[in-house]
Every structure is written in structure tokens, then in C-alpha cells.
Write a structure and sequence with these properties.
six-stranded antiparallel beta sheet, three-stranded mixed beta sheet, 38% helix, 18% strand, chromosome, Chl4/mis15/CENP-N, CENP-NAC/CAD_complex, centromere
Length: 338
């Protein structure tokens, strides 16, 4: 095992919280149970990492072994990254082929290696016939940078791929490799992005009526309002009962009675020309359209929107531009003149 692999493994293990260490190492399945039992997991983390790296050196860990450990860490901590969604499509008259995973892996790797001399590609099969892909990019003159990789989660039975990457310059090549290797005709980036990969999957797969893993202890506004109602004096008479029932009914019809997918923001870009019945004025002579950007942010945006009307902050129903996010599979919108 060379110094590059040893340093890669050392940095990856250092990122793993102590309470997850054994679980992730067992999932990695590179070090045996007997080898792990020889390690003192109660010592200082720096000493623990050094002992684990020595065991990896004894087993001659490869770069691919180190990459698999990084994939497992990323699977567990996927909410720490920002994920984009890509949708692939075939030609209208094109037949649907049976997907061969091994053929895909081989083709995908060859496409990238032909385009770039220095690139490392690693795969890890996941549940639901999905596959995790990790690509470390280099150039014709530089070795792959293992610390700025691109991650892809591909569901072969669907046209969707979820990606997280800091190196945007390689995305066209990645899109080409995914399209050709999966035998599709084209690929487009959807206007949908979030840190919560499970929520993105639920939106594009139309599975919003499920429970989502929440990495933030944020209580929705509507729940907080209900908690407050418990301590209200029973002698107080609630006014507008009919209106409150209507708001609750409209909210349930709009959002459903299940937890919402977790998104952090929705962005609306308005492009319009100035219109006025009055003649003259600086804006009336302006040829360029007016541009305005509005961004709604929240740790749990859809639950926050769902809570607005019941809390009396907004009228019901809310604007379709706010409520259509899960159905349209978008949280980036461009609004133009008709």
C-alpha cells in the first residue's frame, strides 16, 4: 500500500464519528472480525486511526478499497452534500432494453478513461438494484484528486440519477458517460436540488406519502401551535371555527396528511417587461426586461409552507407556485411573460 492510499484511508477514518466507527468498518468488510477485535476502540482517535491504517497496510489495501470506504461514509452522511437530479430519456420509437449492471459498469468506466487519462471510478451496489458511483477526476497531466470526487446514485430501472460534485467542469462528460452506458438518448438536469437525498428520491419517484429521515430536530410550526393549544383555558371560546376547519381541510387537500419531503429552499426568478398605462418615464423606455429573484429558505420548507395557513400567517389556499413543488419536481422556477 503506497503513501497516497494510506493518507486517503487515514483522512476518511478521521471523518468517521467514534460512535459510527465499528458500524462503518464492518460495512466496509475489508478488515476481518478478528482484526477489528485486536484494536482498542477506546483509545484516542489519532492512535486508533494509526492502528487501523497499519492493519490496512498489512492487507495491502488498494485505491479502490479506500474509495469503497469513502462511498460507505458518504452513504451514511449523504445529507452533508448537495444533490442534483438528472433525468435521462430514450427516443420515442426506441425499445426498452434489459439493464445489465456489469455491462453498464464496464462501459461507463471505459468512456471516462478514454476521455481522461487519469480518472478513478469505483462502484458499490446498493438496495433496490441501485448503484453508487465515485469518480475522482484528474487531467492528462495530473493524477486524480481523491478529495474532490463526484458521487452518483443511479437507479437503473428508472431514468433518474442523483449527483453531488464540486467540480462542475466535468459534468458534461459525466452526463455523456451515464447516457451512453445506460443506453439512453439524452440527459437533462432537473430544476431540483437539496441536501436530503431521500426526499429528492421520493419526489421524482412520486413516493411522497412516506416517512423521511430527518437530520434536524426542527418541529414544524403547525405542531408547535397544536402543542400550545393544549394549555389554553377551556373557558375561551374559539371564534371563526368554520373558517379554521376550512383552512385545515384545504391544507390537507393540498399537502396531504403525510410528512412532506425535506427541501431547504425554493427559488423563483421573474423576468418581465415594464407595463404601464402612463406614457413616458425611464422604465417605459427600457428595452431590457426587469429581473427579480425571490428565494424562500427554511430547514424544512414544505412543512413550513404547510403550516402557514393553519397558523394564520397566510390565506388558504396558498399560491400554486408554492404548493406545486413536489408534483412538478422543481424548486427552481423561471417566471416569464406569456
Amino acid at each position: 500500500m503506497d503513501e497516497i492510499v494510506a493518507e486517503f484511508i487515514r483522512r476518511t477514518i478521521l471523518k468517521i464519528p467514534m460512535y459510527e466507527m465499528m458500524t462503518i468498518l464492518k460495512a466496509w468488510n475489508f478488515l476481518s472480525e478478528n482484526q477489528l477485535q485486536t484494536i482498542n476502540f477506546r483509545q484516542r482517535k489519532e492512535c486508533l486511526v494509526q492502528d487501523l491504517v497499519l492493519l490496512c497496510e498489512e492487507k495491502c489495501a488498494s485505491l479502490n478499497d479506500a474509495a469503497l470506504l469513502d462511498i460507505i461514509y458518504t452513504q451514511v452522511h449523504r445529507h452533508q452534500k448537495v444533490w442534483d437530479v438528472f433525468q435521462m430519456s430514450k427516443k420515442p420509437d426506441e425499445d426498452i432494453d434489459l439493464f445489465d449492471m456489469e455491462q453498464f459498469k464496464c462501459s461507463f468506466k471505459k468512456i471516462l478513461q478514454r476521455a481522461l487519462k487519469n480518472v478513478t471510478v469505483s462502484f458499490r451496489d446498493a438496495e433496490e438494484n441501485a448503484v453508487w458511483i465515485r469518480i475522482a477526476w484528474g487531467t492528462q497531466c495530473t493524477k486524480p484528486n481523491q478529495y474532490k470526487p463526484t458521487y452518483v446514485l443511479l437507479y437503473p430501472q428508472t431514468p433518474y440519477a442523483f449527483t453531488s460534485s464540486k467540480l462542475k467542469s466535468f459534468m458534461p462528460l459525466l452526463g455523456q458517460a451515464l447516457t451512453v452506458a445506460s443506453k439512453h438518448h439524452q440527459i437533462v438536469k432537473m430544476d431540483l436540488r437539496s441536501r436530503h437525498l431521500d426526499s429528492l428520491k421520493a419526489i421524482v419517484f412520486k413516493q411522497c406519502n412516506q416517512t423521511f429521515e430527518d437530520h434536524n430536530s426542527i418541529t414544524p410550526l403547525q405542531e408547535r401551535c397544536l402543542e400550545l393549544d393544549v394549555n389554553v383555558d377551556s373557558r375561551i371560546i374559539h371564534e371563526n371555527t368554520v373558517e379554521k376547519e376550512r383552512v385545515q381541510r384545504v391544507t390537507q387537500e393540498t399537502f396531504g396528511d403525510y410528512p412532506q419531503p425535506q427541501l431547504e429552499f425554493a427559488q423563483y426568478k421573474l423576468v418581465t417587461k415594464f407595463k404601464s398605462d402612463l406614457n413616458g418615464g425611464i422604465l417605459a423606455e427600457r428595452k431590457e426586461p426587469l429581473r427579480c429573484l425571490i428565494k424562500f429558505s427554511s430547514p424544512h420548507l414544505l412543512e413550513a409552507l404547510k403550516s402557514l395557513a393553519p397558523a394564520g400567517i397566510a390565506d388558504a389556499p396558498l399560491s400554486p407556485l408554492l404548493t406545486c413543488i413536489p408534483n412538478k419536481g422543481m424548486n427552481y422556477f423561471k417566471i416569464r411573460d406569456k
